[in-house]
Amino acid sequence: MEVSVLVWRRSYVEYLVAVFVGLGLSQLATLITTVYLHRVLSHRSIRLHPALTMAMRFGTWMLTSISPREWVAVHRKHHNFSDVEGDPHSPHIEGYWQIMIGNVYYYRREAMVDDTLQKYASDLPFDRLDKALLRRGTLGFSLTGVALVVLFGVFGPGWGIGPGLVALTTLAVVYLLLNAAINGAGHTFGYKSFENDATNLKLLALVTFGEGLHNNHHARPASAKLAAFKDEFDPAWPVIRLLEKLHLAEVLTKVDEGWDDHRRRIPRTTVSPMGNKTVQD
Ligand SMILES: [Zn+2]
Ligand SMILES: [Zn+2]
């Protein structure tokens, strides 16, 4: 009896650890997405050391299975047609819950269009490494699953298959939900400091390495820092500054100047489906 309780407790702890490992990996995937796919590739606001670029490419492949060329093309098209006809994933066009639940479907639908890739990501052709390996996104994500199963098997008290798959599933679900929240909630609720259809959500920014400050981002897509004012925090920014100090990254655009006198600056306004309200001059 005592032994079975002990075994149950051990596996309970192991599954709890698996959830935390999945959460940690989803944060790492989100950091790679905002720094590499978004700020480095899509908007060219940061340049990375070649060694870090390679690490980011493998990180993208193994944690998200995303093709950078596809992600960049879909994202640039989103900026071009933000919340009007042609936007690949607008909650104003498709519906709020459609994006919150089906974001990945809308992403895939656009990523499969050759014209979109050619028009919006012609500067990112597939190289030899992409063709030989990194275009096989499912393989990268599967390898992460195998690594998790092996690690839980070696360091855990029992077989690693259950906890390994729990960690992998947590990574996938949380990563997809966070991305859906940026595209769905980040164009629906929150506050605005600039006249565009996106919104800022400070809490979302804390768990998406700054991406929740989406109204700021649509105002100045080229800014490498997404926080515009003193009461806002972009958690990726200290990471980028650290990478700069280590000579692994270089910020190419202005980040602090110009927010206050931006031509689309408006009094801070809360936004909800019930209506908008000015909260600060
Ligand atoms: Zn947006
Ligand atoms: Zn962007």
Walkthrough of the structure:
With 281 residues, this protein is mainly alpha-helical. It has one domain (2-279). The chain contains 12 helices and 5 strands. A 3-stranded antiparallel beta sheet has the order 2-4-5. Strands 1-3 form a two-stranded antiparallel ribbon. Strand 4 (265-272) and strand 5 (275-280) form a beta hairpin. The relative contact order is 0.13. The structure holds zinc ion (ZN) (2 copies). The site of one zinc ion has 7 residues, from helix 1 and helix 3.
Question: Secondary-structure map with pairings?
Answer:
Blueprint: H1 2-42, E1 46-48, H2 50-63, H3 68-80, H4 91-94, H5 96-111, H6 114-120, H7 128-134, H8 137-155, H9 161-183, E2 190-194, H10 202-207, H11 214-219, H12 236-245, E3 249-251, E4 265-272, E5 275-280
Antiparallel strand pairs: 1-3, 2-4, 4-5
Helix pairs in contact: 1-2, 1-3, 1-9, 2-8, 3-6, 5-9, 8-9
Residues 78, 82, 187, 198, 214, 218 line the site of one zinc ion (ZN).
